[in-house]
Structure formats: C-alpha cells, structure tokens
Amino acid sequence: MKRPFVIFYALIIYAVAELLWWGYMLVHLQPDRTAMILGEGTMFIVVFLFGAISLHKSIKKERKLQEQKKNFLLSVTHELKSPLASIKLLLQTIQKRDLTKAQVQDFIGKSLLDIERLDDMVENMLLASKIDNRSYTFPKAEFNLSVLVDNIVNRLQLNKCDINEQLINAEIEPKIEITGDKFALTSVVTNLIENAIKYSGPCEVVDVKLYSKNGAIHLAVADHGIGIADDEKSRIFDKFYRVGSEDTRNTKGTGLGLYIVKEVLDKHEASIRVKDNRPTGSIFEIVFA
C-alpha cells in the first residue's frame, strides 16, 4: 500500500532536484539575470509543491475512503451471516426435534427478531444509497411521534438480564405530533437506540426521553457505554466512520447509522448534538424546532 507513495515522493524529489540544477546552470550561464531566475524559480517551486501536497492529500483521502468501503463490505458480510446462521439453526432445530408448542413459539420469536435485524440493516443501506443519489424525496406528513418512539422501544427492548431493570428505560410524553418523513425518522430513532445498545455493556440501561419544551420537540438517547472521544465527535456522522480503530474495534456495525441520522435530520431542519454522559457513556440530543 505504501509503494505508490514512495514512487510519488521519489518523483517529487527528482523534479525539484532537476529544477534546482537547471536553475544553477542558468545562473552560471547568465549571471546578469540571477534575480529573475531566482524569483521565477522560487515561484515555480512553491506552486509545484502546493500542487504536490494537494495531490498527496487527495490520494490519501481516496485511500482512506477505499479502506472504509472495504471494511464496510466486510462488516455487512458478517452482519448478514450472523442472523442468517441463527435463523437457519433455529429452523433446523424446529424441523428435526420434537419440541413443545412453547419451545416452537420461542424459536419462531427469536427468528423474527433476527429477521427484523436484517430488515433494519437492508433499509439502512437502501436509504443511504438513495440519499447519496439524491433520489429520495423525504415525503412529509403529520404523525404521532410518541407512538413511533414507543413502538421502536418495545421492538428493541431486551430482557435477558437477571436484574429487574429494563434494558431500555423510556420516558415518552404522549400525543406529540410532528410533520416529517415517518419512514426516515423511524430509521433515525432505530439507529440511535441500536447504537446505544451496541456500545453499552451487558445489561447496561439505555435511557430514551421524548418531550416538548418551549414549542420544540426534544428526543434524547443516553447510554452508559464506552463513550466517544472529543476528537471523534465531529466525525461520527461521516459516512462509513466508526468509533475507534479497525484493529481495536469489536462492535458490530456498518458505519451508516449516524450518517443517515444526520442526513435525515438536516432535511427536517432539526439539530443533533452529542455530549458525554456521567459517569460514562454518551447522550445524543435531537431538537425539532
């Protein structure tokens, strides 16, 4: 991967060395034009180096984007295979074993949860593609945001812990109406809550609050997970970007969730900010003015 840069820098050094040599020769042959040669030579070197640095940054940015796309494809492959393998195993168990009706219903329920997970991921990729192609029009209509958030919380709620606390603690003010794209905003709420669960430890509580204040609608999703470093907070909404390095990251994801969140909220003229939770974790706050 470093070979193109080595060749690039070698060519730059060779070109500058040749320029300096020809400049020296011109000064030696025409000493009365030394000032003009030095002035024009210096300007040429400055412009040449500026172009070389700009080209280097563009190549580096393109390489980083290609690496992110590669990681995205690997992540998508893993995220597809995991629930598919789970569904296959559950269905094979139902087919080959003599299970009770309760066991069958439990396995079917788990399969449906995996199917919903796959559906969410596919919807994310389709929506991100449409946003990139500017083919999505964001059709808006009035709907009950309280019901939407409550339904998503109930769907993502997991009670696998031995403690009495819920994984998602929701405080939802009833009958909050909003005009917007229901499909896209469903993706926003789903992505924020799934991210909070994903980056939290086992049995850590995620807080979801929806309320109106001073004529604005507020939605906050807080977790007690690993948190986000200050230098990464401005980059987490970039496409394919994921918190941490590729070597140390162990959470699932495609890097599209927060990108979609930001793009959708921009289309709704809503703001989002992320801040540190106390003592650990992050809080994402959305304001619909």
Describe the structure.
The chain has 289 residues and is an alpha+beta fold. The protein has two domains: 1-136, Signal transduction histidine kinase, dimerisation/phosphotransfer (DHp) domain (Helix Hairpins); 141-288, Heat Shock Protein 90, CATH 3.30.565.10. 56% of the residues lie in helices and 15% in strands. The protein contains six helices and seven strands, in the order αααβαββαββαββ. It has helices at residues 3-29, 34-96, 101-133, 145-156, 182-198, 257-267, and strands spanning 141-144, 168-172, 177-180, 206-213, 216-222, 270-276, 282-288. It has a five-stranded mixed sheet with strand order 2-4-5-7-6, covered by helices on one side. Strands 1-3 form a two-stranded antiparallel ribbon. The longest helix is centred in the first third of the chain and has 63 residues, at 34-96. The chain is elongated and about 100 Å long. The two termini are 47 Å apart. 20% of the residues are buried.
In short:
The chain has 289 residues and is α+β, with helices and mostly antiparallel strands. It has helices spanning 3-29, 34-96, 101-133, 145-156, 182-198, 257-267, and strands at 141-144, 168-172, 177-180, 206-213, 216-222, 270-276, 282-288. The chain folds into two domains: 1-136, Signal transduction histidine kinase, dimerisation/phosphotransfer (DHp) domain (Helix Hairpins, Orthogonal Bundle); 141-288, 2-Layer Sandwich (Heat Shock Protein 90).
